[in-house]
Amino acid sequence: MIDLRRLSVLRAVAHYGTVTAAAEAVHLTPSAASQQIRQLSKELDVALLERHGRRVRLTPAARGLLRHADRIAEYWQEAEAELHTAHPTALRGHVRLAGFPTAVCSLLAPLAAQLRAEGPDLTVELRQAEPGECFDLLFSGDADLAVVEATTDSPPLNDARFHQRPLMDDAFDLLTPADHPLATGPAPKLGELADEPWILAAPPCSARQLVLAACTSAGFTPAIAHQVSEWSVVATLVAHGLGIALVPRVVQLPPQLNLARTPLDGEVRPFRRLLRVVRSGDERHPTIAAAASRLDALAPR
């Protein structure tokens, strides 16, 4: 009989990439985590880790075992969900939400308020985290529902560990001072902005890459005048006439600034895709499913 606790350590090593990071996630010391892997290897009589320079990597046997381990974890989440079906419409227990700052402000905070109002017996916990960290929190059981931006670094949609569904496409709007000529005429095409000074998000923000790629598709490289890290700072620089910017539509900007947000026209209009993610099997948990359903209703607004 395989010890499922040892199997969870192996899954953590595969997810986090190192024994040290995996040990921290499962609340063990690195030596204890290594011992768990050695014991699992002994039980199965196969090598699970092999040296690769100063690091370790999974053997083919370990990768094969993990395909079954992910399904076992999903079955366990489904079994736990069934235990809560006695009150399928009741909001109770504890639900933990995670997302990047814009998602927290525009989607998860309103969701948390709605859940608290509807479920006085429900405890809602919010946590700000970047997309990669959100997947880590879901994997470790420290988050139940996350809103992430789909990036090239995200797990694929068919990753057996997560249940990922499109939530909304967040279009980028042109941001200018309210009295700027681009704000008072017809909706501009992206190519018409080529001669403007640009304010871009500083790397490694994914929005920067989306904007640069869209500008390339429109046939120009933007003249970057300023680079900043916060959308509120972007808005402040734009309001002072220091350049234009493209800003995701769900971003909430300081209301006191005299700004205009103008949707772009034409075929080249950048957007980012937002996903809602839970652990595989948890989509059937009544409380998590209810939270996901309410989030879906909030997103189009």
Could you explain how this protein is built, in words?
The protein is an alpha/beta fold. It has 10 helices and 11 strands. The chain has helices at 4-16, 19-25, 30-44, 60-82, 101-118, 131-140, 181-184, 206-217, 231-239, 286-298; strands at residues 49-52, 55-58, 92-99, 121-128, 145-149, 162-177, 197-201, 223-228, 245-248, 259-262, 271-279. The strands form 3 sheets. Strands 3, 4, 5, 6, 9, 10 and 11 form a 7-stranded mixed β-sheet that branches. Helix 1 (4-16) packs across helix 2 (19-25), helix 1 packs across helix 4 and helix 2 (19-25) packs across helix 3. It is globular. The protein starts with a helix and ends with a helix.
In short:
By secondary structure, the chain is α/β, with parallel strands linked by helices. It has helices at residues 4-16, 19-25, 30-44, 60-82, 101-118, 131-140, 181-184, 206-217, 231-239, 286-298; strands spanning 49-52, 55-58, 92-99, 121-128, 145-149, 162-177, 197-201, 223-228, 245-248, 259-262, 271-279. The N and C termini lie far apart (51 Å).
- Binned, the helix content reads 40-55%
The share of residues in extended strands comes to: 15-25%
Mean pLDDT: 89
Shape: globular
H/E order of the elements?
HHHEEHEHEHEEHEHEHEEEH
Annotation, overall tally of beta strands: 11
The residue ranges in which pLDDT falls below 50 over 5 or more consecutive positions are none
Gyration radius over CA: 23 Å
Q: What's the quaternary structure here?
A: single chain
Our count of helices gives: 10
Strand count, sense and closure of the main sheet? Answer: 7 strands, mixed
Q: Which structural category do the helix and sheet elements fall into?
A: alpha/beta
Distance between the termini: 51 Å
